[in-house]
């Protein structure tokens, strides 16, 4: 598995044991694909004995939803962003275990106990007051210092500069997400 190949619910277990060494060889594991089927492949791998659970998020060269080509290096930028955000606001970021450039895979802590914000908002559920405070802290302490707005305003050069890719982000946002969503909503 040195070159990119798509993982599945069986190979992801082998990958985490043999290549990443995040589980023991004899540890019984369960794996499920939990992605939404749009862009990336997302797996949850859980030990049946310890309960330890790890998320593996893998990028592919094609969008899952449409089969259109997509820059596979997006996972590397996401891994860099996670590392930077963890340095700035560790209380808000899942533990980052590893990034595998050849497989375009990120291995991180499973934070499913936190729930899914998108689903909560879509269901119209009220969020705790602490959510607004935490979101504001994260935006101010991690997102803003790594944004184009910060650098355009004369912010110091730093680690965030390597992650900020305005053209790539804009192109992905405009063609990969919003256009697909809008096309699906048309009668």
Descriptive notes:
There is one protein chain. By secondary structure, the protein is α+β, with helices and mostly antiparallel strands. It has a single domain, classed as Phosphorylase Kinase, domain 1, CATH 3.30.200.20. Helices cover 40% and strands 15% of the residues. The protein has a 5-stranded antiparallel β-sheet, covered by helices on one side. A hairpin with a 5-residue loop joins β2 and β3. The longest helix has 20 residues. The radius of gyration is 18 Å and the shape is globular. The C terminus is likely disordered.
Q: Give a quick account of the main beta sheet: strands, pairing sense, barrel closure.
A: 5 strands, antiparallel
Report low-confidence residues grouped into runs of 5 or more: 168-187
How many alpha or pi helices? 7
**CA(first)-CA(last) distance:** 43 Å
Q: What level of helicity do the residues show?
A: 25-40%
Please report which band the strand proportion falls in: under 5%, 5-15%, 15-25%, 25-35%, 35-45% or over 45%: 5-15%
Strand order of the largest sheet: 1-2-3-5-4
Which shape, going by the Cα principal axes? globular
Identify the CATH homologous superfamily: Phosphorylase Kinase, domain 1
| CATH fold node name | Phosphorylase Kinase, domain 1
Report the count of strand segments: 5
Question: What average pLDDT do the residues reach?
Answer: 83
Second-tier CATH architecture = 2-Layer Sandwich
Q: Report the top-level CATH class.
A: Alpha Beta
Elements, N to C (H/E)? HEEEHEEHHHHH
Give the structural class: alpha+beta
């Amino acid at each position: 598995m040195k070159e990119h190949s798509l993982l599945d619910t069986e190979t992801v277990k082998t990958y985490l044991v043999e290549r990443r060494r995040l589980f023991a060889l004899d540890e019984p594991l369960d794996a499920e694909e939990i992605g939404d089927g749009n862009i990336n492949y997302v797996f949850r791998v859980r030990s049946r004995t310890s309960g330890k659970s790890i998320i593996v998020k893998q990028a592919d060269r094609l969008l899952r939803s449409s089969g259109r080509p997509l820059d596979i290096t997006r996972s590397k930028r996401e891994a860099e962003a996670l590392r930077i955000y963890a340095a700035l606001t560790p209380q808000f970021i899942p533990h980052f275990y590893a990034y595998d450039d050849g497989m375009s895979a990120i291995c991180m802590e499973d934070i499913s106990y936190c729930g899914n914000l998108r689903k909560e908002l879509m269901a119209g559920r009220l969020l705790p007051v602490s959510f607004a405070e935490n979101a504001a802290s994260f935006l101010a302490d991690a997102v803003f210092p790594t944004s184009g707005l910060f650098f355009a305003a004369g912010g110091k050069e730093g680690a965030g500069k390597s992650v900020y890719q305005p053209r790539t982000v804009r192109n992905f946002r405009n063609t990969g997400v919003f256009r697909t969503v809008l096309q699906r909503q048309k009668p």
